[in-house]
Amino acid sequence: MRYKCTVCYDGSQFHGFQTQSDLRTVQIEIEAALEIIHKRKVNIFACSRTDAGVHAYGQIFHFDSEIKMPEWNMQNAINSRLPNDIYIKKVEIVSEDFHARYQVSKKEYHYLIDVGEYDPLKRNYRYYPKYHKTNIEAMEAASKVFIGVHDFKSFTKNHEIKNTVREIYDIEFIREGSLVTIKFIGNGFLHNMIRIIVAMLLEVGWGNLSKDDLEYILKQKNRKLAPKLAPANGLYLYKIYYNEKN
Amino acid sequence: MRYKCTVCYDGSQFHGFQTQSDLRTVQIEIEAALEIIHKRKVNIFACSRTDAGVHAYGQIFHFDSEIKMPEWNMQNAINSRLPNDIYIKKVEIVSEDFHARYQVSKKEYHYLIDVGEYDPLKRNYRYYPKYHKTNIEAMEAASKVFIGVHDFKSFTKNHEIKNTVREIYDIEFIREGSLVTIKFIGNGFLHNMIRIIVAMLLEVGWGNLSKDDLEYILKQKNRKLAPKLAPANGLYLYKIYYNEKN
């Protein structure tokens, strides 16, 4: 049986999603829960890695199991063995040709900026820039530079990867009071790509860079021209879209 | 100079407000910030104690200082020396007959219950009851029992206190989607009083007790009849009202 799971987590207390030595990660906690249920080690395959502090409302993973149980039953079995900062929202039994990572058609990430007064209760869930006057309209206009197929080499931390071309389908700005949600939809995102883009858009919002500057930096394919990184706590892996048959 | 401060904090990582031995409390952190500014120990006088895990949007304290500076300047001076889970929202220079604790006319607390699907990102800021069908209308109707002047001896943890009579001016239920905010306004609240009342109201919402049962328990003045306690993470010290001249 192959189970597809949609998982929500608060990234604040994790060293990211993926297992790495002894650090507390989301993957370690989920695999520990599955090991109790299966009485053997179970590997999960997730759609995306997320960095330390990054949250997820719609991370997807799959695993194979010899245990046949109804979807709601498997959901409860896992949730009852997870710490309270991870929650499985949905379990689906899928065919064995489904793969959480290789059949993705689109990924949607949200980045949350609050330009209002600092609220310590939301400090882990939004970025509160210290610089106070942020021109959101200028950020939104400049964001158009990134839409389409581009080589995002200037906007990634990882320079070992060969193919740094990605397509961004849409970047949308949504304002609710002092909260600005920037929605990114694309076929995939490089390591740190969204956080670097947001940091550079904020430089536009603060009047330090122009839209033309961003266009120039994009064309130069040189990370040294985009040396900023927005904090992890504003970033959410929001939704993963699969090809229709999945 | 007497300074009155309005402070907001995330109670999750504190052992309550008030200093007690070596535990991390809100008071310790604020007094440490003031000690850096004043180069001497400064005592603060707060309106209310809050327990571990309880949040505040409008806790009030005052302190006396030989330093004369504009209100915004003192606010920045303190905030820049506080950890990021405490934030001073307002500083006011007040007359020396103002006292944060002794001139209170009303206190407003909010208790947040979410009857929808569990969200791990909000786990520290709302109570998610595990029991799923909660009759909010029945809770609201039963809450009327507590409005007015009553001896709340059945609804407090502290049985050493002599005067357990308090007046609740209003209890209001506000629904926004799956979120239920219960607003309590009164002249004062005993230790754990709101959390015990909420726990007993939830028993009504789950069909285990009736409004008449709550009336009976209130009259009996016996905590053994009200042995429940709602979690701290749903409770907020929302606003303190002072007599007009303050």
Summed up, what is this model?
The structure is a homodimer of 246-residue chains. Chain A is of the alpha+beta class.
Give the SSE layout:
The structure is a homodimer of 246-residue chains.
Chain A: E1 2-9, H1 26-38, E2 45-46, E3 55-64, H2 71-79, E4 86-94, E5 104-114, H3 136-143, E6 148-151, E7 165-176, E8 179-186, H4 193-205, H5 211-220, E9 235-242
Parallel strand pairs in A: 3-9
Antiparallel strand pairs in A: 1-3, 1-4, 2-3, 5-8, 5-9, 6-7, 7-8
Q: Spans of chain A of 5+ residues with little confidence (pLDDT < 50)?
A: none
Task: Please tell me the overall pLDDT of chain A.
Answer: 95
Estimated share of beta-strand residues of chain A: 25-35%
What is the approximate shape of chain A? Answer: globular
Most extensive interface = A-B, 16 and 16 residues
In whole angstroms, how far apart are the ends of chain A?
15 Å
SS content category of chain A? alpha+beta
Radius of gyration of chain A: 19 Å
Q: What can be said about the biggest beta sheet of chain A?
A: 9 strands, mixed
Strand count of chain A:
9
List the quaternary state of the chains: homodimer
Q: Secondary-structure element order of chain A, as H and E?
A: EHEEHEEHEEEHHE
Verbal overview:
The structure is a homodimer of 246-residue chains. Chain A is of the alpha+beta class and 246 residues long. Helices cover 22% and strands 29% of the residues of chain A. The first copy, chain A, has helices at 26-38, 71-79, 136-143, 193-205, 211-220; strands spanning 2-9, 45-46, 55-64, 86-94, 104-114, 148-151, 165-176, 179-186, 235-242. In chain A, strands 1, 2, 3, 4, 5, 6, 7, 8 and 9 form a nine-stranded mixed β-sheet that branches. Chain A is globular.
